[in-house]
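Side project, low priority. Logging it here so it doesn't get lost.
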Amino acid sequence: MINKKNLWFLTLFSLILVLSVYYITMPTELLLTSNGNYVDTNKEQTEPTVAIEESELITALRVSSDEELMHELDALKEVLTNTESSVDEKNTAFEKMKILNINKGEETKLEKKLLDEMQLKTFVKIDGDQIKVVVDSKEHDTTVANNIMRSVQSNFDKKMYITVQFKG
């Protein structure tokens, strides 16, 4: 005997199943458009594309830093997944991974802070107690450099060694 709960369950389950099958069988072009109209991707685009420009130097530094971070994380993951690694090695690798992730978050936060406060496009690299800030500017201003150092140091409790470079 089917009671009300079972009937509702079967109804909702069949609805979810039908919608899932519909979603899976939909053409991917429909999912990529924002208004739901089918757009043929083989035609030339008549709308101009928006290009966001950023300093090539800043972009190159970010890519290089991200690649270095990925290599380090891969090496640490290898230590963690290796069955022959000791518990101490695994703990050390895990702690290094945690520090790398925290540093990456701090770098992003500092870049956003400098962009919001001083309208400067920057690249920030944290290595222990050393912080390197590269500013995308042709003007070398000691006042701006001092303000950057104070702003960056305000995020940390302990003394950090901050270097500021102007490149543009």
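Brief comment: The beta strands are 122-127, 130-136, 161-167.
Revisit when time allows.
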